[in-house]
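INFO  loader      accepted 1 record
INFO  loader      residues=255
INFO  predictor   begin
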Amino acid sequence: MSLIDTSTNTFHWTLDLSDYPLARDLQRLDRHRVLVGFDRGFFELEIETGRVLAMCDRWTEVTSAHRRADGSTLVTGFNLDGSGGVNVLTLDAAARLSGVARRDGDYVRLMRVTPDGSYLLCTNDHILETTPELTAIRRFAVDGLEHAWKAERLQDGTTLVSAGYGAFLVLFDRAGNVLRRFGAAAQVSARVAPFFYATFQHLANGHLLVANWQGHGADNGHKGQQLLEFDTSARVIGTWSSPERISSLQGILPV
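INFO  predictor   done
INFO  writer      dumping tokens
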């Protein structure tokens, strides 16, 4: 994990994540801290230095962590309670377990809470919106979703999804109908080389940053452009890669 000024290609610090395997989720907590979800739990990171400030390390197969405004933390993953399903655990501000929600399933990636308090779970080939008890409310699906990575409810009620190996982004309306599908190989220049669209983040100007992950292991950084910027018309207007330092970019967070 690194703090990078992409305008100058300056790496301010780099943290070796070998002690924090499968770090997938990032959340800005305040001006100084980021929450990072990883396979065994989550940790808090100081933005300026990359120093780990606190850690909760209790499980395996955690895929997402989200800090709520009241200081509690939602931990999402597979088989976290030992029952063989998908779980969302609630920890209070002191990291004590205060709630367990479960539903059948064997795959989940990032989880996001909507403004209405429902949950959006990325469950491979579809997105499931649920109650906090993980009771299904609605399903978002389109051909091509494979290991769908992130879904987010936008202010206008639409839902934006990154398609994973489908290598596109898709915007759904409130009823689950497709409004826009963009970023696929036929819609961008060949040098982008879409492979796996992972985390995305919104910028203040309405643009969208997307991580275009290029594969497991080393020496993938030369295969395509790994950080993409889409404007409000869904055009790629900027790209960035650092193949000598990064093989595959998965999580991004503007700070």
